[in-house]
UniProtKB/TrEMBL annotation:
<dbReference type="InterPro" id="IPR036291">
    <property type="entry name" value="NAD(P)-bd_dom_sf"/>
</dbReference>
<dbReference type="Pfam" id="PF13561">
    <property type="entry name" value="adh_short_C2"/>
</dbReference>
<dbReference type="InterPro" id="IPR057326">
    <property type="entry name" value="KR_dom"/>
</dbReference>
<feature type="domain" description="Ketoreductase">
    <location>
        <begin position="8"/>
        <end position="190"/>
    </location>
</feature>
<dbReference type="GO" id="GO:0032787">
    <property type="term" value="P:monocarboxylic acid metabolic process"/>
</dbReference>
<keyword id="KW-0560">Oxidoreductase</keyword>
<dbReference type="InterPro" id="IPR020904">
    <property type="entry name" value="Sc_DH/Rdtase_CS"/>
</dbReference>
<protein>
    <submittedName>
        <fullName>3-oxoacyl-ACP reductase FabG</fullName>
    </submittedName>
</protein>
<comment type="similarity">
    <text>Belongs to the short-chain dehydrogenases/reductases (SDR) family.</text>
</comment>
<dbReference type="GO" id="GO:0016491">
    <property type="term" value="F:oxidoreductase activity"/>
</dbReference>
<dbReference type="InterPro" id="IPR050259">
    <property type="entry name" value="SDR"/>
</dbReference>
<dbReference type="InterPro" id="IPR002347">
    <property type="entry name" value="SDR_fam"/>
</dbReference>
Length: 249
C-alpha cells in the first residue's frame, strides 16, 4: 500500500532517540522529508546524519517544546530548510515519578510543560501552514498511563490531557483536511525503560501477563504513527490507537 506521503514534510519532536527516532526513520522510508526536533542538538544531528547517510532527506532542529519562542523558531527553520510542516508528531516527553506527597511543584511543571504544553505550542505553530495547504496530520504520543498509574500523577495527567487536546483539535480542524490523533503505547523497550532499576521485573511481568506476551518495540509504535500520518488515514480523526499488547487497564 502506498501511504501517500512522498515529499511531505514531517517534524517529529523528541526524535533524537527511542520511539521518535524510529518514527522519523519510518516516515523517511515512506518518502517524507524529516526534521529531527530535540532539545539535545548533538543527538538530533547524529540521528539526522544517520538518516542522510542512508539516502534520506533529514535535518536536525534544536527545540525546547516547552518554550513558545523556541518552537516558533524551530518551525520556521523547518519551513525554510524543507517546506512548511505537513506532519507533526508530538513525541517529546519524559517521566518524573514520585508519589504525590513527595512530588515537587517542579516535578509537576516540568512533565506537564513538555508533554502537554509542548504539544499545544507545536500544534499552534504548525496549524496556519496546514490550514493554508488544506492538508495536515498531527499525531500526539500519549501513553497507556493516561488511565492512571501510581507514582505518575504528573505524567498520567499530562498524557490524559493530551487526549483532550487531540479531540478538540480534531473537532476544530477537520474542515481543513487536518486530522489529529493519538497513540497510547504500553511499555516499550527503549533505553529510558531499560535504565529503570526494576527493568527485569517489568519485562517478566509483560511476558507473564499481557495478551501479547512481550514488551513493545519502537517499531510497533512507529508503525501506528506512520499510518496515522499517512494519506490513507485521512478519514480517521480524534481517535486513540493503543499500542499496548492488549493491556488497557
Ligand atoms: N518508552 C515507553 O515505554 C513509553 C510508553 C508510553 C509512552 N511513551 C512516550 O513516548 C515518547 C517517547 O518516549 P521514548 O521512550 O522514546 O523516550 P526517549 O527519552 O528515548 O525520547 C524522548 C526525547 O525527548 C527529548 N526531549 C525531552 N525534553 C524535550 C523538550 N523540552 N523539547 C524537545 N525534546 C525534548 C529527549 O531529549 C529525548 O530525545 C514520550 O512522549 C513518552 O512519554 C513512551
Amino acid at each position: 500500500m502506498d501511504l501517500g506521503i512522498q515529499d511531505r514534510v514531517a517534524f517529529v519532536t523528541g526524535a533524537a532517540g527511542g520511539i521518535g527516532a524510529r518514527a522519523a526513520e519510518m516516515l523517511a522510508e515512506e518518502g517524507a522529508l524529516v526534521a529531527i526536533g530535540d532539545i539535545n542538538p548533538d543527538a538530533a544531528e547524529a540521528e539526522a546524519a544517520r538518516l542522510r547517510d542512508t539516502g534520506f532527506t533529514a535535518i536536525a532542529v534544536q527545540v525546547d517544546v516547552a518554550s513558545a519562542a523556541s518552537v516558533d523558531q524551530a518551525v520556521a527553520a523547518v519551513s525554510q530548510a524543507l517546506a512548511p510542516v505537513d506532519i507533526l508528531v508530538n513525541n517529546a516527553g519524559f517521566t518524573r515519578d514520585k508519589r504525590i506527597g513527595r512530588m515537587e511543584e517542579s516535578d509537576w511543571d516540568s512533565v506537564v510543560d513538555v508533554v502537554l504544553k509542548g504539544a499545544f505550542l507545536c500544534t499552534k505553530s504548525v496549524l496556519p501552514g496546514m490550514i493554508e495547504k488544506k492538508w495536515g496530520r498531527i499525531v500526539n504520543i500519549s501513553s497507556r498511563a493516561y488511565l492512571g498509574n501510581p507514582g505518575q500523577a504528573n505524567y498520567s495527567s499530562a498524557k490524559a490531557g493530551l487526549l483532550g487536546l487531540t479531540r478538540s483539535m480534531a473537532l476544530e480542524n477537520g474542515r481543513y483536511n487536518i486530522t489529529v490523533n493519538a497513540v497510547a503505547p504500553g511499555i516499550i523497550d527503549t533505553a529510558a525503560v531499560r535504565n529503570l532499576p526494576h527493568f527485569e521485573k517489568i519485562r517478566t511481568n509483560a511476558e507473564a501477563s499481557l495478551p501479547l506476551p512481550r514488551l513493545g518495540r519502537v517499531e510497533d509504535v512507529a508503525a501506528a504513527i506512520v499510518f496515522l500520518a499517512s494519506e490513507q488515514a485521512g478519514y480517521i480523526t480524534g481517535d486513540v490507537v493503543h499500542v499496548s499488547g492488549g493491556r488497557y487497564g
